[in-house]
Design brief:
mainly alpha; about 75% helix; about 270 residues
Length: about 270
């Protein structure tokens, strides 16, 4: 891809990674619809995606830096002792991260074939829209409580929702947000747990591929750095917006995103098939 396409792709990645609309889905559909010269099998594409993921993870770490400092401090001080809310939240994040990470390692290669299928992406995107609309209905029925009341079993179930993001068209943040609402969290608490939970997964996805980055990057370091910074800036702005949005919007917060995914998925399928 050329430099302009790379910069636009970085913006798409940074925004859609945190919004519940599927970064993988948009990363497949938009370049395909606009006729971009993207070769996902090229050795140059992997370092590009590594840098974008590192940019997104850095943005999340920066935004939630006070949370992570408090979490690690409480965890190191209290360990397995009860009574420390920061240590307990850290264990909840660990419980939610481990099974989702294992599923990602086991299933990603088997599901990668779907990344080149626009039809599969559109179907999963429409299903993601239905999932988000379901989340709002679940929120109306379930009594609300704060993050401190979340159980370990609930954290694991929410974390497993991240595995849906292996299907291009399903959103990592959308799945975990809906799972949080289903377990009685309010919108703000569910969003906070979702973004904290996403940080180690996104960071690990980038860090594990860093050795390949140094091998394949060649003379593209300048463009890669700019794209990583741009993706990170968009991810930070998206997180800032969404955290405030979910705090202020206590009813049907996911409905706009659900309708967007549903209309994009169904509309794309109709255009493709007619």
């Amino acid at each position: 891809m050329n430099a302009i396409e790379a910069l636009l792709f970085a913006v798409i990645q940074g925004v859609s990674e945190l919004f519940p609309i599927s970064s993988l889905g948009h990363g497949v559909l938009i370049p395909d619809w606009l006729g971009w010269s993207i070769n996902r099998q090229s050795p140059d594409f992997l370092p590009f995606m590594v840098v974008l993921h590192l940019g997104t993870a850095s943005a999340l770490l920066l935004y939630f830096r006070r949370d992570w400092i408090a979490l690690f401090r409480g965890w190191l001080q209290a360990g397995f002792k009860a009574g420390n809310p920061q240590a307990r939240l850290m264990w909840l994040l660990i419980a939610g991260t481990v099974p989702a990470g294992l599923l990602g390692l086991l299933l990603e290669k088997q599901l990668r074939v779907l990344f080149s299928s626009a039809t599969a992406v559109l179907i999963f995107l429409a299903l993601n829209g239905l999932l988000l609309l379901l989340g709002d209905r679940l929120k109306k029925r379930a009594p609300s409580h704060e993050l401190e009341q979340l159980s370990v079993a609930g954290a694991i179930k929410i974390g497993l929702g991240q595995a849906l993001a292996l299907l291009p068209g399903f959103s990592r943040s959308g799945a975990t947000l809906v799972a949080g609402l289903a377990h009685g969290l309010d919108y703000a608490s569910s969003a906070r747990f979702s973004f904290l939970l996403a940080t180690p997964i996104i960071a690990a996805a980038g860090v594990l591929e860093v050795p390949k980055l140094t091998h394949h990057a060649h003379n593209q370091w300048g463009l890669l750095l700019i794209c990583g910074l741009l993706s990170g800036a968009c991810a930070y702005a998206s997180t800032w917006f969404l955290m405030r949005y979910f705090k202020k919007t206590e009813i049907e917060s996911l409905r706009p995103f659900g309708y967007y995914c549903l209309l994009l998925g169904i509309g794309g399928l109709l255009i493709k098939w007619i």
